[in-house]
């Protein structure tokens, strides 16, 4: 990652505004389509795109599973005794987080629980990374994110429950270029079920990301 500059500030502002629009629209299919189009524009044209600069001219867009209304869930938040742990990045380096709660919800006929992590450091942020049965075959092998408030990827809370919409699950930046460092899901957030929603493998995978 290059040194922060005004381009990074602009990237963060635009991503936060994009998710604000999705929240206002209630995460409907049309909002999902706008989110996809906006991401493709950012990835193709923005100086802070995670797509390597040499590959942006031939970038044809990100690939996704079909939209699934059932992939939007309201998760019960279960408080846990806070525990400081390290999440690995793609090179195995530790990233300090605090595990403070879990999100529990039904997925098809399965009961699913995902740990919630608070990223340590200035400002912090809530992070929910996960792997599932599609990881390494249909989706990025190292896992995806369904919520990351540091990047504005937050769909809010409804009736005291956390909104997790897996149609908006996306790859960490290290999926596109190994120069990026990203926290990855630990085994407690590896799901046995397939999550066929959100970003999947596509043409962008040939840009140099290391398989996991």
Structural class: alpha+beta
Secondary structure: number of strands: 7
**Rg computed from alpha carbons, rounded to a whole number of angstroms:** 16 Å
Tertiary shape: globular
Distance separating the two termini:
20 Å
Strand order of the largest sheet: 5-4-3-2-1-7-6
Mean pLDDT: 90
Layout of helices and strands:
Blueprint: H1 6-24, H2 29-45, E1 72-88, E2 94-107, E3 110-119, E4 126-130, E5 144-148, E6 157-158, E7 161-165
Antiparallel strand pairs: 1-2, 1-7, 2-3, 3-4, 4-5, 6-7
Overview of this protein structure:
This protein has helices spanning 6-24, 29-45; strands at residues 72-88, 94-107, 110-119, 126-130, 144-148, 157-158, 161-165. The chain has 212 residues and is α+β, with helices and mostly antiparallel strands. The protein has one domain (1-212). A seven-stranded antiparallel sheet has the order 5-4-3-2-1-7-6, with no helix packed on it. Strand 6 and strand 7 form a beta hairpin. The chain starts with 5 loop residues before the first helix and ends in a 47-residue tail after the last strand. Residues 208-212 have low confidence and may be disordered.
């Amino acid at each position: 990652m290059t040194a922060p500059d005004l381009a990074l500030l602009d990237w963060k502002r635009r991503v936060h505004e994009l998710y604000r629009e999705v929240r206002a629209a209630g995460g409907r299919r049309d909002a999902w389509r706008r989110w996809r189009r906006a991401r493709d524009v950012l990835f193709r044209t923005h100086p802070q795109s995670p797509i390597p600069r040499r590959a942006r001219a031939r970038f044809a867009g990100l690939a996704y599973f079909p939209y699934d209304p059932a992939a939007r869930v309201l998760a019960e938040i279960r408080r846990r005794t806070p525990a400081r742990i390290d999440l690995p990045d793609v090179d195995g380096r530790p990233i300090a987080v605090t595990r403070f709660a879990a999100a529990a919800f039904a997925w098809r006929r399965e009961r699913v629980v995902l740990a919630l992590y608070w990223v340590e450091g200035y400002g912090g942020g809530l992070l929910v990374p996960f792997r599932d049965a599609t990881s390494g075959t249909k989706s990025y092998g190292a896992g995806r994110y369904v919520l990351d408030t540091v990047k504005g990827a937050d769909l809010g809370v409804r009736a005291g429950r956390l909104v997790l919409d897996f149609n908006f699950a996306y790859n960490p930046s290290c999926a596109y270029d190994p120069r990026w460092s990203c926290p990855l899901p630990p085994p407690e957030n590896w799901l046995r079920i397939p999550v066929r929603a959100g970003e999947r493998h596509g043409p962008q995978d040939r840009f140099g990301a290391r398989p996991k």
